[in-house]
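Worked problem 6 (solution included).
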Amino acid sequence: YIVLYATDESGNLDIRFTENTTQDYYCTPENVKYCNTSYNDAYPSIMADTSSIFFCSDREGSFDIFSVDLTGTGKFLDLLYDQSDREVIKVSELSSEYNDKCPFVAGNLLIFTSDRPGGYGGFDLYYSIYDGNNWGSPVNFGKKINSAYDEYRPFVKNFGNDFENDFMIFSSNRPGGKGGYDLYYVGISKMTRL
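Solution. The predicted structure is:
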């Protein structure tokens, strides 16, 4: 297994990984060098084919969504250990003047949270569909999922053709929970998959 995550051990959020591909225990965590800056870099998500890593960063002021293309450059684990520089690109279709955070990729669906105008209050969950060349304009999941409070850290699981909907888990500080950020789940309609 390979686990990517963010930690603030250095004073700001950095993206790290650990793996147990050749032993029974996880190795000492390592930085994913080309994703990290002296700013906050967090919430890494990997395309299923390991062709890209998506994450968010406040390196340009507010949080935006960035990607690193790994296409055709070697085995994924070797790329994580790689200490050379790689081009990090701000995904302009998904980023705004506001805070766009917590990207999660599932097939050609990317979901994230944003406090951009036009939402229901606080941070709302949005999605975008990749057409093979570009990400589509972000769409708000609507008031059945978003609230006047903050919705964060979305995750989608596709259970194949046995179910009509995909399964989305997210956290929210809306009233009615146990306090702080609680986990919620909902079925979302299956988006077109690559």
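Discussion: The chain has a mean pLDDT of 92.
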